[in-house]
Records
---
Amino acid sequence: MRQTTLILITLLASIMTSLPVLAAWQLDNEKSQLTFMSVKKSMIAENHHFSTLAGNIDEKAQVNINVDLASVNTNIVIRDERMKQFVFESNKYASATFSAQLDNTMLAALKTGDVKQLTVDGQIDFHGQQQAVSINVNVIKLTEKQMLVHTSQPFFIKAEAFSLVAGINKLKELASLPSIDYVVPVSFSVTFVR
């Protein structure tokens, strides 16, 4: 009887300690993207992205996403290097992060095929500055173990808010451009798995 009780307690303890792991969602970098657009000469728009994202939604519905700034990809190698060096200063600021608290009850209630429209209030930590941001997203439960979150409209990063103006001005100088916009629209589509 005592041995049966010990086995039962061990089994229950094992299940309880593994529940948070089962409830956590991990970002799948291969199925995720973060894109931004730049406008130069007041009329030439170009799309760019970051190749390396990481993150999770934990068992308490806390979202944390990390963007590797050295993974910027503008399809022009010299521009990538200049952005890393002068705009992002990625040797000093290796990553940008986004964090937010979601409604755990809402996430738990999502069924496969459900689409939920949300405004997520969170914080961006980027280039040594922290700013609050509200992002409109769609959350789609693809399967029991896969969830897609994407922006329903772009949000905007203002260079001045993150001390990026000097770096952008350096890019303008190096590329002999009359202008590069200081406000950048950003979109993402990220897949989480558990």
---
Amino acid sequence: MQRLGECLGSNRRFRIPYLRSLAILAAWQGHGAQAITHLREAAELAEEIGLPEEQWQIQARLAKVYEAEGEPAQARLAWAKAATIIQGLAQGIKDETLRARFLAGPQIQPVLQHAQGETQQGSADPAEASGT
């Protein structure tokens, strides 16, 4: 991975999948905090470059790592951000059939369901939602 990173140089677009790969490797090795750092950097780059297709996937991965690290509040935020990005992408699809297919896609649907479940859980417990 280190050699791959060196080959990328300053190409920000190629750095995103590199950072995502580093995050997966770090999580697999049990270094959740390091995985989060890599994913946050990847998310920032994707946002700066304007790649919402990458952003939602990074946010979904980030949510999973936060969950694994026992950080449910951060996970909820990441799920919500991923869902918001997906909804924004869907709004750009003018054809109703294509939009419905996009939202029902096998990668999209679990994220939306998870974010919806988090929203419902949050609204069901007002004390948790207010942080008390």
---
Amino acid sequence: MRDTGRIGVGIDFRDKTEVVLHSAARLARATGAAIDLIHVLQPPPAYDRVLNLGKAPDVDHAASEARTSLERMVATNVALTGIAARAHVYVGVPHVDLPERAAELHADLLLVGPSTRHRSGWFGVGRTAGRVARRALCPVLIAKRELAEQPRCVVATTDFSEASQPAMAAAAVWAKRWNAELVLVHVLEPIFHLQGWSAKIAGEKDVYAVEPTDLEPEWKSIIDGLALSGVCHRHEVVKGETVEAILEFAESAAADLLVVGTHGRSAVAHAVIGSSAEAILDGAACPVLVVPSAAGA
């Protein structure tokens, strides 16, 4: 995992902007990174222009106002005191342009807040944040709530695939920076879910192909590949269906950060590119760090 030198921060000027800013500032202070505040202004759709009696919106004026607001934020927001920060305003589609612009700015991490316009409110991810997480080439932190000033527990999921390694490596790095406990978790799903046929028999008990203790060789291979010197860590296997099991485990562990990877072979790894993504990202109460498999390159 490469060092975090620049943090891109998506700003939409809604009511959780302070949560996003404080989280970004804490990450920047932990890494010495600079911050790029990014606002993507999306022009109104055609029907809004029609309702406005054909008057074209003054996009240039709106962009100028947004830039002024961002620059004022950089200059006066207490959370950013002592942090090198810049303001950027673009016109486009937020979930497309935000990850693209962050890449152009060489961001090593992109931080966004969940959308308050989503049906599930502040704790839901919303369309923009979820789409950004799917498109970005760098890790994306979704600030479901303000990141703790001194996080104590980092939970990272693994399906034992090589593609999940970058997520665990990132989790180890952050745990070491914060002197937090790192908990690696694998979900063991019942056969009926994995095989697609009902394996509930005799007393409605789920049937599993293996038991948690059978997975110790897989854990050894995973752990041997991580830089865990000086990191307090443990690993756990939980039984159940992936999404529910991850959410319940993160809550029971009082996780300050939940780390998930992309592009692996199981439902965990496909979470941010398939339907499981919305459930994991929406359901988590803590901040979620989404790490693409390419982050290990």
